[in-house]
Design goal:
This protein is 19% helix and 32% strand. The protein has six helices and 18 strands. Strands 4, 12, 13, 14, 15, 16, 17 and 18 form an eight-stranded mixed beta sheet that branches. Strands 7, 8, 9, 10 and 11 form a five-stranded antiparallel beta sheet that branches. Strand 5 and strand 6 form a beta hairpin.
């Protein structure tokens, strides 16, 4: 049975590549594992076979796609339309699970100069959501029930003009040339103060003092080259190789400026490059000045 890649996962501030071993014809729950990544290590891998739907993962368990459908190489999610619809039916982000009883936190996240957003995440997840989004600097704003957190998010969007989404290409484009920590912390703290001064906060949302946290070290930003090429699609037999310089959100940054969005790796069986590999996968360049914008073992992962 094959191990299919599930993309990057962040645990205790460290990136890892997730894997799922499906049962016969993808109809059993299977098993999951992960491979921790170390900055400075050499990686080399090739995609084999076809890209498959990974089904739906909820409450720590993955339900396989009942039809084991294939997924286009350029798709941002390794899910068929039916599994994607089922996934969104339990999604807080899609406002389809308003009865969620968990405690939520509201946060401010900074991705680059002028690139700030407001969002919410379940308190039990800690900072995982911020790592997954590639937030460089961030701070909590408050905590409380889901709908109170959602109303606070809407308040900030309307009153301060802070979006709840930023296109991922904009985050990536500025990542290789960011200002120092003191400047990005000051921008987050300034917005936190403006948000705290607003009237109309829900009474059930407890406010939190400003404590700015920086992900420069977990992402390896100090050694990160400006991204100049981004993989746009994995193809069967296509290979990727290079020295891993850092990781942020779903992205793997290589020392030569190549960026691999691991969302495009999800659903593939990844193997060591062999004679059947056809060469590099398709890439697209990123202008370095876009306006919006230790030794380890060699191996697969």
């Amino acid at each position: 049975m094959s191990w299919w890649c599930t993309g990057i996962r962040w645990s205790d501030g460290r990136p890892a590549i997730g894997w799922w071993q499906h049962g016969p014809q993808g109809r059993q729950e299977g098993a999951e594992r992960s491979s921790l990544l170390t900055y400075g290590q050499q990686l080399a891998f090739a995609a084999r076979g076809e890209r498959h739907c990974l089904g739906v993962r909820r409450a720590g368990r993955r339900t396989p796609c009942p039809t084991a459908l294939t997924v286009p190489g350029r798709a941002g999610r390794a899910q068929c339309p039916d599994c994607a619809r089922l996934d969104r039916s339990f999604s807080v982000a899609a406002d389809t699970n308003a009865a969620d009883p968990r405690t939520y936190r509201v946060y401010l996240a900074w991705f680059g100069p002028g690139l700030l957003k407001v969002g919410i995440t379940a308190e039990e997840r800690g900072s995982a959501r911020l790592l997954e989004q590639g937030a460089v600097t961030w701070a909590w704003l408050g905590r409380g029930p889901l709908m109170a957190a959602r109303r606070t998010e809407e308040l900030l969007r309307a009153a301060l003009g802070v979006p709840d989404r930023i296109a991922y290409a904009r985050k990536r484009a500025v990542r290789g040339h960011l200002p120092p920590r003191s400047e990005r912390a000051a921008e987050v703290a300034g917005l936190h103060a403006r948000a705290a001064a607003l009237e109309g906060w829900p009474e059930s949302l407890g406010r939190l003092e400003c404590e700015v946290i920086d992900h420069g070290d977990p992402f390896g930003l100090g050694a990160l080259p400006a991204p100049d090429r981004v993989i746009t699609e994995m193809v069967s037999g296509g290979t990727v190789s290079g020295r891993l310089a850092g990781a942020a959100g779903p992205d793997l940054h290589f020392a030569d400026g190549l960026v691999v969005d691991t969302r495009l790796l999800a659903g593939w069986e990844l193997v060591e490059p062999g004679e059947g590999a056809r060469g590099e996968v398709p890439t697209a360049g990123i202008p370095p000045a876009a306006p919006e914008a230790a030794a380890a073992q060699d191996g697969l992962f």
